[in-house]
Amino acid sequence: MTVASFAKILFVALSLGLDVFAVSVGVGMRGTERAVKLRIGAAFAFAEVTMTLLGVGIGRAAGKLLGDSAGYLGFAALVAVGGYMIYEALHGTEEGGGFDLSRGWGLTLGALSISLDSLGIGFSILYIGVPLGVSVIFIAAASVLSTALGLALGKRLGMVAEERAALWAGIVLVLTGLAFAGLKYFRVGA
Description:
mainly alpha; Manganese efflux pump MntP; Mntp/YtaF
């Protein structure tokens, strides 16, 4: 794997990790036991990887139908998901409401909500020139590490960090989609 490929997947994994971090800070603010932290980390990582693979399947199908332009459609999906995350962060949508994000339906819905961006990543990951297996490992590791860090620092960081992390995750995804489209267009690092 080239340095450019490594940088691409590291950038993608970290941008996904910021979203997971934001939700984990919110859960960590309430304090959690070690077993709960492990359950949340496993659920978030599983959701991130599953949605990435689902996105890959959609991306492959789109690639067969649309050819080379499917990559640009995938990058547009990243920009759209990032834009939505920015909108959500700036307009203060209520997250979690009455859900307990540490177990049951609350954990399931929380994991699904934070993994929607992974669907867009999966759709476009085929077109950034990084092997799928390596990509999935990086995404899972970033998810677990971001969850652990967010849960551990939740009480200390408070709501400010949670809101800022969600905003930055959106910004990074928009920039990632634009950068990857530019790299593909100019055939750099492919």
